[in-house]
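Morning, I've got a small favour to ask if you have a moment. Here's the protein in full, and shout if anything looks odd to you:
***
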Amino acid sequence: MNADDTTPDSRAPGRASSGARMAGRVAVVTGGASGIGLASATAFAREGAAVALVDHDESALDRALEALEAFGNRTHALHLDISEFGAAPKGVETVEAMLGPIDTLMTAAGISRGQSVVETTEAALDEVFAVNLKGTLAWMKAVLPGMIDRRRGAIVTVASQLAFAGGRDNAAYIASKGAVVSLTRTAALENAGHGVRINALVPGATDTPLLARSMSRRADPEAARTRSRGRHAMGRFGRPEELANAALFLASDESGFVTGTELVVDGGWLVA
């Protein structure tokens, strides 16, 4: 898949699958206009869910929504800034008015700005944490009361293998993803008794627009891509739909006894 491909898996049929693992569910995906977010939203729709996409990229959001409508389920798009803490409760209210009570949240919105520890500016740190951590917490906080009342819900956050392995020249991003892991564990513990499961998806380097932008900051982008691919035991980048399959597992009842954990889908990065 091309790193800038933001369309759903072309092999997916334009209807819910016979399994319909998400039938009757309402799912919200932040960062849903591209990459892992869009692939996961597509998987949820394919499995019968009504899906709301949240993203700041209005044109990409329109294209993604049009693609999801092919599945015949109810859809909705919210164009807003994930980093605005107060936007989340208003967004949840809008989605529930349009689609019904939210059963599933996936917080896939994320940004990186590069920079080593020494180079990291206060502005870059604030910007990255505002999207990656504050945005995750805000949407989690906004959906939890309804899930607790209904004693049902699944939240999938998106971390990174770098949260465990560390990495160079991306200090704010890596730190923010470590914080997402800690937040996920904390929220899972607090809400396990309320029927809400909360888990983190941990991707390796995945062929998405975010990865393309990250590589473009390198002095030799193609050499950087080659090094990164080689760092994975499987010798390649992940595909967004591969991560979406894992997100679907965490969002569905198939993972009914799974909470507070990290599902690592990294092509063997952490063991290489």
User: Anything to note?
Assistant: The beta strands are 26-30, 50-55, 75-79, 104-107, 153-158, 196-203, 262-265. Residues 89 and 142 are 5 Å apart (CA to CA). Residues 122-150 form the longest helix (29 residues).
